[in-house]
Amino acid sequence: MAAFDLDTIRHSSAHLMAQAIARLWPNEQVQFGVGPVIENGFYYDVEMDHKLTEEDLKAIEAEMKKIIKEKLPIERRVMEKEEAISFFKDQGQELKVELINSFDAGEEISCYQQGEFIDLCRGPHVDKTSDLPIAFKLLNVAGAYWRGDEKRQMLQRVYAACFKDKKQLKEHLHFIEEAKKRDHRKLGKELELFHFERVAPASPFFMPKGAMVYNQLVDFMRRVYREYGYDEVITPQVLDSDLWQTSGHYDHYKENMYFSNIDDREYAVKPMNCPCHMLMFAHYKYSYRDLPLRYADFGRLHRYEKAGAVAGLTRVRTFCQDDAHIFIEMDGIQAEIQKLMEMFFICYEHFGFKNIKVNLSTRPEKKAGDDATWDKAESALKQALEASGHEYSIKEGDGAFYGPKIDVEISDALNRYHQLGTIQLDFQLPERFNLKYTNKDGHESRPVVIHRALLGSLERFIGVYLEHVGGAFPFWLAPEQAVIVPVNNANHLEYAQKLYKELHDLSYRVRVDDRNESMGYKTRQIQKSKAPFMLVIGDKEMENDSVSIRSYGAKFATSISTSELKENFAELNKDLIPEALRKS
Amino acid sequence: MAAFDLDTIRHSSAHLMAQAIARLWPNEQVQFGVGPVIENGFYYDVEMDHKLTEEDLKAIEAEMKKIIKEKLPIERRVMEKEEAISFFKDQGQELKVELINSFDAGEEISCYQQGEFIDLCRGPHVDKTSDLPIAFKLLNVAGAYWRGDEKRQMLQRVYAACFKDKKQLKEHLHFIEEAKKRDHRKLGKELELFHFERVAPASPFFMPKGAMVYNQLVDFMRRVYREYGYDEVITPQVLDSDLWQTSGHYDHYKENMYFSNIDDREYAVKPMNCPCHMLMFAHYKYSYRDLPLRYADFGRLHRYEKAGAVAGLTRVRTFCQDDAHIFIEMDGIQAEIQKLMEMFFICYEHFGFKNIKVNLSTRPEKKAGDDATWDKAESALKQALEASGHEYSIKEGDGAFYGPKIDVEISDALNRYHQLGTIQLDFQLPERFNLKYTNKDGHESRPVVIHRALLGSLERFIGVYLEHVGGAFPFWLAPEQAVIVPVNNANHLEYAQKLYKELHDLSYRVRVDDRNESMGYKTRQIQKSKAPFMLVIGDKEMENDSVSIRSYGAKFATSISTSELKENFAELNKDLIPEALRKS
Fold this sequence. Notes:
CATH architecture of the largest domain in chain A: 2-Layer Sandwich
Largest sheet of chain A: 9 strands, mixed
Distance between the termini of chain A: 64 Å
Strand content of chain A: 25-35%
Number of domains of chain A: 3
CATH class of the largest domain in chain A: Alpha Beta
Structural class of chain A: alpha+beta
Helix content of chain A: 25-40%
Oligomer: homodimer
Number of strands of chain A: 29
Radius of gyration of chain A: 30 Å
């Protein structure tokens, strides 16, 4: 077999699938849309009356294998535009005709033919169907508007995974399976963390356990802030459009904002905290001695997203960020960025994210501010990154028009990268709000603003982190840290309740499961809830002042004294703050 | 002097003031509006070109005293409506003419005359000007629209305090002085706790110190909730009008809500959390074993208030409450209310509120639900209040149409009562949301809902509490608990910073004041900031490992060892939780 590249294999496999579909439904005029290569495979959009089922996908796969065995040669044909139009018209392929019509006049049009099947395509392709490895799997069918236009007809999009060999395919299918198990929407429901309601699209309702995790994350960031000199502020959510004019959001972000009229004026629900912090800085007189000034804000934000774009917790219409704005002198940037990188890495590693990528985005073509300022800022960022000792990639020209930025991605347990942190220099907002401080020489200077978030949206972080840990939160973050189970209520409940009170008073989150259910049932339920520990109390435990402890996921329980239990819990609870920031 | 009642004295004094004004500006056609008795005195609305100044108020007071000395008899005259109209028209008193025109035809119209001054008035009055005690003080002038209508002209409203004798007046003026000093708007600015901006009317911006107090209050309630079995939830803020239709807010509360259109549907920013909690309860299946279920929510609320009605933190357009909804069986109400009363009293007393009034409001004429249910609910509330051992007043018929309620008022350091807590039974929302749980017999039952808030709006509570403590927060709540001052930076700064680190690591909120300013200046500044403690470090303190400590408001400092200091701080910090709820 010649060494075709993966994209070619995937693309040819898409044609293969289309051919199989055409063969299996000869009496339907199946219309073919587009069939591009995507990450991990390909899809093809088809229009047909029959609604494809899981069974159909299996039949299509079988037919594809059959065509491979037929060793059909794949041949390229070139046509003039008019010829191509009339050819596909004859074939009844109206979607293809529409595509060809959208091409420039005089453009060379190529088609590929294998057996009876011919498709419009730029290529390249493998030489014959038997060049294709049987390393594909048809995954599912989803609806997709023709040309992405919701006013056009809905086609059936058939997704397939496709690799160079069976081993890679198998690995990928395992990954998909694991990702499905860890899907945060599924876990959110199972663990009673959050859910959605029709009356509030893309706006999660956090049930007690979810709210506990949420608040623990906020508290975690507050403890970190305390060590890095951040001051939390609380700012309004509904603000006059005048403010959004000043900040520039009105011109650049209006479609994503919610508006309301109050006393005949237009107000908007805030999509970002920054303008509020600019007002606060402007309200007082500051000198260089007060800088850097760091305002942190967990204020709730609202950003409109199209109904089709929202998904679980990872893309919502309302969320809070661990947002902060740092007001700083130009000369202070490098030291501050170094501090930020330290803080980011300490926290990400605390959450168990092992692979961390740092990207530096530099000045774009259309930019505000002069080159000298950009030079200074970019070089400060580079020097800070180098001094931090972390590798980083440069994304040339990818900065915002108002300043260069650093973004940080982490990879989760399934090796998927997620951007969490962002550090954004801003020369524009201080101008727009005419911010000033008194410098060392007693003159007025303009501060630079750094926008930064470490976890980013807390909602999204919870989604990402839930999938990373598969729903099994570490002790310090678990909504329920331990469940105490008396072997039978008659003999052991009192002792269980005494232990409960002791642990509760030590500020642990524990519960007694005193339901009249079997031990087996309770054990399964507690394992399902992914509580870090199950503590069983029977006769022996009462006698020895001990508990039978079983960690989440462990096959067996072990016996330890209650004093040892408390020591262990205290040790685990140290993780409330990252090791690097702990007091001696 | 005959014994006239206070209202008569105040009313006659209002006429006295009007006469004095008329005398002092003989060349202006001063128009008199209304001059009613109010709490602590009276006011009179006048229309004149001259804008009254503080100096004028003194001159008017002097003239009033002069008229008293003139011993003018005060005589009642009765007129027919037509006669009165023509009389006041002749006097050029157009506002009085308008008032008379609004009276019913045939109504008897009385006027009172003293010397050259005659005023439309129902009376009664004292017999002669010399019957009036010289126990009044003109306080200030404020603008007021004629007949409260913003489309009519603006009059000058002259406010006066007025009592039976000079002693009472003096006491009241002292109270006003004290209240001014404690005005939370003034303190909020001075202590850099919060401020307002034009772009967000009635929506406070909490600066770092204010946000610290705010978050400490939330954390305080969380600690209390932990002991009383509350579960915090986090709910969306922007919800479809469908929901507000279901809850009834759309029919009864619409004018106070902000609306926004999203994807061609109408949404409202939530003014209350209850509908979200109803949805949450309905989302899961609960049994009697799960009840009472207590959802707490610090969600941000938005309620439109007219621009004229808002004031400081006490009446804002956006706030958070220590809000909770309890889902409970009818039979559980009494026990739960007892628990609530315990919790309320423990917390209020912890904040130093000594006088606590409890009111029970019973069924109104227009009510939902049958009498049997109301009987049961009211008697449960009464029995709970009696079992709690607190006195309470009954407000007959003052309950909401959907259930009886208890409200709790506290008196502050100036003996002003403020309603903080409210406990509201609700039979309606469970109906509207068709809430159900499985009762002991395995059948479906409808739960009762209790709406409750202890601090109420956190914003308003901060306003009330700031005035109660005059800005001097107790140690556990103070945004800055201690300021460390080295006598001179050259010798003592290092030691001061070491002490700072120790206290910071023990989680206290401290700061080093290392500015190059005199000790006297720093002392004044720290006293002004009302930080509980100032800790001075000089040679002696460095030698002895001690600090010179001065409490807020104390005239002198005393010397204690740093270990004693830490013990004292730890003792004070126990107030993070009320004594009654502390662990042994």
